[in-house]
Design goal:
6 helices, about 240 residues, globular, about 30% strand, Nitrilase/N-carbamoyl-D-aminoacid amidohydrolase, 15 strands, Carbon-nitrogen hydrolase family protein
Length: about 240
């Protein structure tokens, strides 16, 4: 599937870049966390029109709505299909907002997707639960600062390896603190037999978009093998 990742600075470019990605063949478009201050600053109706016009799914990012951090999911008819909520609030978010308590899975064009918002990726149990429910591609809107980028990439790499899934990350671009550098990766078996995370798309520190083409069938056997290896266990305290 062709997935568009957009790094905007403001609403006007968010819409124009999303449309450019859709014109280039994106079947689903993902935007970052908090590229707009809150949900009231997001032109949701415009995103809905684009989704309907190009018969594509759009996740316009993740934003504060005064209660939680939410990621709206717009389907290919332009309807609001659902809302994902951030479960693990970060730092001062905890003082103002209420965490979510469920994760979102959806099927689109034969592929099962999950959504995980920024800090939630730090917690392996969330992605593992999505993996056990069959997701093939994880969509991750984020707002990670420049000094945290190296460790952020490690989290993405590890979740890809642990669960043998594709990950598409849209990270906020808002200089000087937030560098963009959105990335997409999939698991791939190397000639030595070791599974490694392969980067299939990467943006720099600029406004822009990219299209990544991910075919989960290429790593389906890796997911199947990992599912067979997963066992339940108990913890016994001595």
């Amino acid at each position: 599937m062709k997935i568009g990742v957009v790094q905007p600075l403001e609403a006007k470019s968010a819409i124009s870049l999303t449309e450019r990605a859709l014109k280039d063949g994106a079947e689903l478009v993902l935007l970052p966390e908090k590229w707009a201050k809150n949900i009231d600053d997001v032109p949701l109706a415009e995103f809905q029109k684009l989704a309907k016009r190009y018969t594509a799914y759009v996740i316009p990012g993740a934003f504060e709505d005064g209660v939680s951090v939410i990621a709206p999911l717009i389907d290919d008819n332009g309807n609001l299909k659902g809302i994902a909520k951030k479960i693990h609030l970060f730092n001062e978010e905890r003082l103002r907002l209420i965490p979510g308590n469920e994760v979102i899975i959806f099927n689109y064009r034969g592929i099962k997707f999950g959504i995980s918002i920024c800090y939630d990726i730090d917690f392996p149990e969330i992605v593992r639960e999505l993996f056990l429910k069959g997701i093939e591609i994880l969509l991750v809107p984020s707002k990670v600062k420049d000094f945290g980028m190296d460790i952020w990439r490690e989290y993405l790499r590890i979740r890809t390896l642990e669960n043998r899934i594709g990950i598409v990350n849209a990270n906020a671009y808002s200089p000087p603190d937030f560098p963009g550098k959105s990335v997409s990766m999939v698991p791939e078996q190397s000639p030595t037999g070791i599974v490694v995370p392969k980067i299939v798309g990467e943006l720099g520190s600029e406004e822009g978009y990219m299209i990544v083409d991910i075919d989960p069938l290429k790593y389906m056997y890796l997911r199947g093998d990992r599912l067979k290896e997963y066992v339940k266990f108990i913890v016994k305290e001595l």
